[in-house]
Amino acid sequence: MLKKIIRKILDRLFLRKFDDEKIQKGLLFERQLDLNYEKIKNLEDAYFKIFSQDFEDGVIQYLLRCLKLKSLKFVEIGTQDYSESNTRYLYETRRCEGLLIDPYPNLRKKIGSILRVWKNTLKIHNDFIDGDNINYVLEKYSFNNNIDLFSIDIDGIDYWVLEKIPDKISKIFIVEYNPYFGPNKHITTPNIKKFDRFNYHKTGFCWGASLRAFLNIMNKKGYKFLGTNRLNNNAFFINEDFLSFINIDLPSTKDLTLFTDVKFNIFKKNKDLTSSFEIIKHDILDLEVFDLKEKK
């Protein structure tokens, strides 16, 4: 028993040391960004990874500088254990107040094991979210307006949750989309509470919504599309009221092929993207998605 306790303590200390090294690298990136952010014309010029899934950290830092934001209020839906997320680096390095929403088991305890929780205010809603309860949860924790950064990555009914969130609730919005759904279709997962992609279909192929679907709804909510991450699965939007602060050239949304060219492989049995998709084509013929144009 004592050995297990000692091992656990050592593992935690080494993990913290490793995380601190990542933070130091991030701070060096920030110094460089301070000197050059006004020259950036494409989001990819700001790519940098610290705790995010891909290179979202760098893009976030770029946008914060454009908006002259120092202390922050953020919401992140879909964090799992928070070891890899879009707001973790912000929590570690800025003065901020955050709300995390995820059904991950014992989330509060897990976060307490990896974060110095005394550094900032962090509220945690450890349960499932859907279109019916999202606004109740936001109001409950006083995160229903004046948000600086809002990130949503549920791997499921993201569209239906986003649909209910108040317009222009945040300055910056990050939405995970499904690039496998292609550049043109207006489709999403069916609106099923506690949606699980692998319970819904054996391939796990159905999650989220198409980029085109998100562009349409975000435009209606008063946001402008700025671009995506390197993997082509996270889209960045800016509240149109703050568009004048952004220096980059806005991408064309007429053809989204560039942003739906799949850069990652969800099919673990085969490393090649093309052949992997060919292998499962016959398995997705019975997979139903919701067509937002046809409303069925």
Question: What report would you give on this structure?
Answer:
With 296 residues, the protein is α/β, with parallel strands linked by helices. The chain has a single domain (2-291), classed as 3-Layer(aba) Sandwich (Rossmann fold). It contains ten helices and nine strands. It has a seven-stranded mixed sheet, with helices on one face. Strand 2, helix 4 (107-114) and strand 3 (121-125) form a beta-alpha-beta unit. Helix 1 (2-36) crosses helix 2. The longest helix is centred in the N-terminal third of the chain and has 35 residues, at 2-36. The chain is globular, with a radius of gyration of 19 Å. The termini are far apart. Mean pLDDT is 90; it is low at 2-7.
CATH architecture: 3-Layer(aba) Sandwich
Please, how many helices?
Answer: 10
The secondary-structure class comes to alpha/beta
* Integer count of domains: 1
Shape: globular
What CATH calls the topology is Rossmann fold
User: Can you list the strand order of the major beta sheet?
Assistant: 3-2-1-4-5-8-7
Question: CATH superfamily name?
Answer: Vaccinia Virus protein VP39
Q: What is the β-strand count?
A: 9
What is the arithmetic mean of pLDDT? 90
CATH class label? Alpha Beta
Quick recap:
Helices cover 34% and strands 16% of the residues. It contains 10 helices and 9 strands. It has helices spanning 2-36, 56-66, 88-93, 107-114, 134-140, 158-164, 197-200, 211-220, 257-260, 273-280, and strands at residues 72-77, 96-101, 121-125, 147-152, 170-176, 187-188, 223-228, 234-239, 290-291.
